[in-house]
Amino acid sequence: MRLVVQGSAISFSHLAHLHQLSGAQQGLQFTQLAEHAYSLPRQTEAQQNVIDFCREQQIDCAYVDDKHTLKRFGLAVMDMDSTLISIECIDEIADMYGLKPQVAAITESAMRGEIEFAESLRRRVALLEGLEDSALQRVIDERLQLNPGAQTWIDACRENGIRTMLVSGGFDFFADKVKAMLGLDYAQANSLEIVNGKLTGKVLGHIVDAQAKADFLIATRDKLGLSADQVVAIGDGANDLKMMSVATAGVAYHAKPIVQQQATYALNHVGLEGLVGLFS
């Protein structure tokens, strides 16, 4: 495996100290992968002192399996809210009508794994009953932004023949927009019921929860004729854990503690371009 360290704070002295801490073989040196990404090959085991030092210095650190590379992957599956984009869309809809504290509290509880996602979504959507559907477009026009490095990551996937899929417990109104913005291959999300131009406070059809995310990943993987070791999944909340568990690598992106504990790798300081660094 290889040690990959990333972060805008990395200096030569950091790399020299990490080289010493790692006990790297003589002649092995860090290779620069990108502006703020470096890799040290031929690591036999993870070193806790390296991990601790990186945490103290706010450097992303990962011991990456040599089989986990862009050239080996065939499908990348990603969450949307707070992963590909910087907001939680439902929280922003609520904010426009003075409901954000109530909705955000439920969102946070669900992302920490304290409430079943489907139940949390029903509670949050119910609070939006009666709102004009124009609020959805306002969120896109005024608040929706891609997270740093999102386009860089998707471009790298495309260059390496990796199909890209967004699976979201959010809403298709936003998922379809993000799909178009980034040029993704697939998108799956929930549908809000709208009657006479107003939200009814209900979700149409089967809710895209944690199990549904995993099921969409598996179905798309099988449709493409890929194996589990050709799929990478990226997310930030507890409802992403099941889809991450059926991929060969699950990446926690600026994620809740429960997700970081169970993910294969975690990125806390760099943007989504850090995925390119991990898997180069």
UniProtKB/TrEMBL annotation:
Biological classification of the source: Bacteria, Pseudomonadati, Pseudomonadota, Betaproteobacteria, Nitrosomonadales
EC number: 3.1.3.3
GO cellular component: cytoplasm
NCBIfam families: HAD-SF-IB (TIGR01488), serB (TIGR00338)
Species of provenance: Methylovorus glucosotrophus (strain SIP3-4)
SUPFAM superfamilies in UniProt: HAD-like (SSF56784)
Pfam families for this protein: HAD (PF12710)
Gene Ontology BP term (one): L-serine biosynthetic process
Family the entry assigns: Belongs to the HAD-like hydrolase superfamily. SerB family.
Keyword field contains Transferase: no
GO molecular function terms noted in the UniProt entry: L-phosphoserine phosphatase activity; magnesium ion binding
Cofactor (UniProt): Mg(2+)
Name of the molecule in the record: Phosphoserine phosphatase
Keywords: Amino-acid biosynthesis, Hydrolase, Magnesium, Metal-binding, Serine biosynthesis
Coiled coil regions, renumbered to chain: none
Catalytic reaction annotation: O-phospho-D-serine + H2O = D-serine + phosphate; O-phospho-L-serine + H2O = L-serine + phosphate
Pathway(s) where this gene product acts: Amino-acid biosynthesis; L-serine biosynthesis; L-serine from 3-phospho-D-glycerate: step 3/3
Active site positions, chain numbering: 79, 81
InterPro entries, A to Z: HAD-like_SerB, HAD-like_sf, HAD_sf, PSP
